[in-house]
Specification:
Radius of gyration of chain B: 16 Å
Number of helices of chain A: 24
Strand order of the largest sheet of chain B: 1-2-9-8-7-4-5
CATH superfamily of chain B: Class I glutamine amidotransferase (GATase) domain
Strand content of chain A: 15-25%
CATH architecture of one domain in chain A: Alpha-Beta Complex
Structural class of chain B: alpha+beta
Order of helices and strands of chain B: HEHEHEEEEHEEEH
Largest interface: A-B, 29 and 26 residues
Helix content of chain B: 10-25%
Strand order of the largest sheet of chain A: 8-10-7-11-9-12-13
Oligomer: heterodimer
CATH topology of one domain in chain A: Phosphoribosyl-aminoimidazole Synthetase, Chain A, domain 2
Strand content of chain B: 15-25%
Radius of gyration of chain A: 26 Å
Number of strands of chain A: 26
Number of strands of chain B: 9
CATH class of one domain in chain A: Alpha Beta
Shape of chain A: globular
Largest sheet of chain A: 7 strands, mixed
Amino acid sequence: MSTLSPPIKTHLTREEAEEIRKRLGREPNPVEWGMFDIMYSEHCSYKSSRPMLSLLPSRSPRVVVGPGYDSGIVDIGDGYVVAFKVESHNHPSAIEPYNGAATGVGGIVRDVLCVGARPIALLDSLRFGNPRSGRTQWLFKHVVRGIGDYGNCIGVPTVAGEVEFDSSFETNCLVNVACVGLAKREDIILAEFKEPGDILVLVGGPTGRDGIHGVTFASKTIGQQSEEDRPAVQIGDPFTKKLLIEAVLEALKTGQVRGLKDLGGGGLTCAASEMSFKGGRGVELNLDRVHVREEGMTPYELVLSESQERMLFAVNPQGLSQVLRVFEKYGLSYSIVGKVTEGGNVSVFFQGEKVAEVPSEILAQAPVIRREAKEPSLPADGQNYPTPKEPENLNEVFLSLLALPNIASQEWVFQQYDHEVGVRSVVKPGEGDAAVLRLLEIPKAIALKADCNSRHAYLDPFYGHAGALAEAARNVVCVGAEPVAYADCCNFGNPEKPEIFWQFKRGIEGLAYMGRGLGIPCVGGNVSFYNEDSETGVAVKPSTVVVMLGLIEDLQWITTLALKNPGDCVLVVGETRPEMGGSEYYCEIHRINQGRPPAAEAAREKASLQTVLKAIRAGYVSAAHDCSKGGLAVALALMAVQGKLGLKIELEHVPCRGVTRKDELLFSETYSRFILAVNEENVDVVLKLASREGAPARKVGRVVDDAVFLLQASGTPVIQVDLAEIEERWREAIPRIMEGKN
Amino acid sequence: MVHVLKNVLNVPTELVWHKEFKHSGYDAVVLPGGFSYGDHLRCGVIAARSPAMEEVKLMAEEGKPVLGICNGFQILVEAEILPGAFLPNDSLKFICKWIILRCETAHTAFTSLISEGQMLHMPIAHHEGRYFHEAEALKALSFSRRIVFRYVDEKGEPSSKANPNGAVGNIAAIANERGNVLGIMPHPERASEPILNPSRRRDGALIFQSMVDYIKH
């Protein structure tokens, strides 16, 4: 063993260092310390979160590959599977928003690609601070541009997502990106070394010094000194990625590739040790062969670099030339960096010397840390806040809500993304509650949506997280899809603080509860901790983004939210309760950040979901929308605006429980609620269906042919506004903030 | 693109690798959208120097239909097969949205099935889609009826509000003199099937069908 460089500084705890010495039976050398440093980072090892994540139900007859691999894989029938994954790129985006966000897209695309699936869609979930602050505008603008430039260039449409603004994200913005791929079931490949003697080929961008310690950087809080971490942010190259996508898919067609993994966080070390561990084989890496961007890189830098656009192939030696020809056709650089061996060691050679040798199981299995969880004394504590007086002019309140950044149209964002490329986009951004992509290969469609309500989750992580899963399910049901699986992306503060770990623990318990209740498995996830400002100690509101996959087996079922026919009746499914905590109405109009958020109950949710899904599939529903931010009033308004048709609603008919005030009825964000437009002759049958499913439902009004939006109570107008004014408030709010337009 | 030609219009279509393209085997060529060479240097400028473009030029000279869509249009301009230049959108942002086009002439290989003044729905998706040409040259283009589509509002007027990118004269598509080469910024292939088109029509397919008819006659 050589020690080429002096012992290095690591981020390992003293206990972890001791454990490593014990398991290895000796003192690691500096290169090995570097490898342990990244593999034991929170980002790579999930050492704090693993015990909790195992609570999430992850099986169903459709699940082919569940959590723990690069992508979750779900069978959609006819010999095809959908692979998908969501990941955070919060830390890099907070200090270098353009490249941070762009490489977030790059990374997640590789996760889907490396199971052998063609990436067909991207989603993004973004969280920022106050939209009027200079920092937020800088982050927001460049994150959106980074995602757009990268996704557009590789020809993968960005079809859905969400943006949320809250002051807790001022320092630490959250950038979560999901990728969805399609493959034939028989073409799936896993990140495993299986056959000793297989040749390792490193393909794609050259290795440089960028991104060294990206994962350890992502495993600490952000403060003033974080600016110095900018070299830890990788730089993306979408054109190389496009070549890589086509080359990988063509190389897999040769049938000579037996294992494949992308190089993301943790670089070569992470890819080689995980493939070795999962396949139960060893690996020999020869660093002299790695094609590099800069001279004089040390072994330490070579094994840790997180340079983008790289993939590691394990290739049958007999078919090597066939595979290499594909890379040459696409003009991609590659190097033969080693081979699969018997045993289970990751052995690294440099200039003829062995510079590291560690069993992959020690590298890939960081000891779990049992974190302490303690319920914080949140401001939500009790209900000790003065109930606000009901405003006299609800019309004005309603118009203000429409222009709130969390409710206003996100057109400013999604018009910067090519959401049409690939000729699959049927329900486009803004047209429905979820995106719908028809598949070209089989006569089916998939629905996709990402959801999270951090204000609800902050006040009650259990209900808030269960609610995020329920909302994502509601959204795919609204477009006519059955929710079949989800992936989650957890974003929290510093897990070493018991109050933060409590949020995480309760959040996962909430997800597990709702997943079990609705029978929707989790097929993959990502955990991002340390989303915290080290100067102020302010952590982000707990935000677990749920990315839902829905399946539509008959294209006739596809439904949008726009009202279509004057004379249609409007039905509300699900009852409204006075659950005002965390609502946009409380937070933004009354500045109350307390109270009880909506309760998520699986049985109630299921009754509503089943009612709507069955009604849509029977062909009774001309438009469907769920109630979320801004409540019933906002949901109705968006259906009217999109359909360019008016509404006349009798509020006394809205199913409710415990509601005593009009503002509660209009703006409460109670879960399990839908609005449906139904032809008059089908109203009774839909109401009967709801009753059979156990969902409260009632006809509340009609679609009208003039441009007026009227909500009245016992014949007296409560809200009465022209559609044009609703549209103007809702559509122009974000451009006004971002472009300084008046 | 291949899906639409093959499965929607039933045209025998091959995706050809850029190093292997020879003009002689084909009746028409489509340069699809995308980001050739990652839009490095300037959109389309590197692809315009590809040997494949020499073959495309030969096809254009032979009078065979040559259709450039989005980045394909940018490549045709960079290769000087079509006149003009592209600037970044006046919003300085990438824009993806559905717009309305008005057909200005039916006398091209791609518009014989479309009547003059007819309005079509299609999406745009570009960052450098602002067509530009000097005033004198524009007059000549207009005089020789080579402006094929303009961006218009719902009333069919080429208003500034209907112009998504600041293109001079609201120009969305132009042709060569013979009318067998068309460059178009919007994406007809994304508007060729009712399921993808919010107006539930197949506007984009009219362009491809015209091209097929032209080949047959």
